[in-house]
Design goal:
The protein is mostly beta strands. It has a single domain, classed as Beta Barrel (Lipocalin). The protein is 12% helix and 47% strand. It is built from one helix and eleven strands. Strands 2-5-6-7-8-9-10-11 form an eight-stranded antiparallel beta barrel. Strands 3-4 form a two-stranded antiparallel ribbon. A hairpin with a 7-residue loop joins strand 6 and strand 7. It is globular, with a radius of gyration of 20 Å. The N and C termini lie far apart (51 Å). 15% of the residues are buried.
């Protein structure tokens, strides 16, 4: 009788333990550039740190209104010379060339990029202006990156939800 109860309980326990294991990495874990490489779509863009009901009209990355990045496609190859493509209606659509990198500093993971439109690859190091986003969560299928912006004297964040593909 004991054996009949033990086997199903052991099976359930095994399923529970296997189900609790995940390929998700917390942003504080050892994330590497290879985890960011690939083709991504921004599935949503939101603002964090803004008082409820506050409206804001601003552009992101000195390009287009932040809402235009929803649905944008990002190609991040190993070489670092990638692109993002704005396809939203009522936005200045098209592909933008970037030079991207990934860094971890003091346990914080950063996705960095510089716009490279009109700049030759060999001159990439001459471009000083760029953007740094904090990666706050990452899984095999997506990551969340926050871009700090100063608004009315305080820091708010544009939050980009990247999904694979």
């Amino acid at each position: 009788m004991r054996h009949k109860i033990f086997v199903p309980v052991l099976a359930l326990l095994t399923l529970f333990v296997m189900g609790s294991c995940s390929s998700s990495k917390s942003a504080s874990q050892n994330v590497k550039k290879k985890d960011i490489r690939g083709t991504w779509t921004v599935s949503s863009v939101s603002i964090e740190g803004l008082a409820a009901g506050t409206k804001i009209k601003t552009v992101a990355f000195d390009d287009v209104p932040y809402e235009c990045f929803q649905g944008s496609q990002w190609y991040l190859p190993n070489s670092g010379f990638g692109t993002y493509n704005i396809a939203s209606a009522n936005c200045m659509t098209g592909e933008r060339k970037i030079n991207w990198s990934f860094r971890t500093k003091d346990g914080v993971n950063y996705f960095n990029f510089k716009k490279m439109d009109g700049v030759k690859r060999k001159d990439a190091n001459d471009v000083d202006d760029g953007y740094r986003l904090v990666i706050t969560d990452i899984t095999d299928n997506g990551f969340i990156a926050k871009s700090p912006v100063v608004f009315e004297g305080k820091t708010i964040y544009f939050v980009y939800n990247f999904v694979k593909g």
